[in-house]
From TrEMBL:
Gene3D superfamilies tied to this protein: Tetratricopeptide repeat domain (1.25.40.10)
Lineage of the species this protein comes from: Eukaryota, Metazoa, Chordata, Craniata, Vertebrata
Annotated organism of origin: Ameca splendens
Protein name: Stress-induced-phosphoprotein 1
Repeat recorded as keyword: yes
Keywords associated with the record: Repeat, TPR repeat
Length: 114
């Protein structure tokens, strides 16, 4: 029997302080504004993390962007997408996402600037 992934494994390769926070959704509907259910959102995040792990950073950026449409206040997704942009050599986009992540959660250790 396959081991079920923990929330941390499902949500981010970096871990999550927002895993228990609800995803934006329309009242009475299981879908968010961009059409993702919570399960679909979690799958996008899992796929984006896997894309990063295998070095497919362009795919990761697309998947993180989809997930961010469902949860635009998620500093971890911005931080992860920033890392993917950096690997692609897209430094300005990486900086913008890092600044957004820091603005959303100034205590997030992955986005601290010395």
């Amino acid at each position: 029997m396959e081991k079920q992934a923990t929330l941390k494994e499902k949500f981010s390769v970096l871990g999550s302080r927002t895993a228990s926070r609800p995803i934006r959704s329309v009242a009475g509907d299981e879908r968010s504004r961009c059409g993702l259910s919570k399960v679909e959102f979690m799958e996008k995040v899992r796929q984006s993390n896997e894309a990063c792990q295998r070095g497919d950073f362009q795919e990761a950026v697309w998947l993180y962007s989809d997930a961010l449409q469902a949860d635009p206040q998620n500093c971890i997704l911005y931080s992860n997408r920033s890392g993917a942009f950096l690997k692609l050599g897209q430094h300005q986009a990486a900086l913008e996402d890092a600044e957004k992540a820091c603005g959303l959660n100034p205590k997030w250790p992955k986005v601290r600037v010395p």
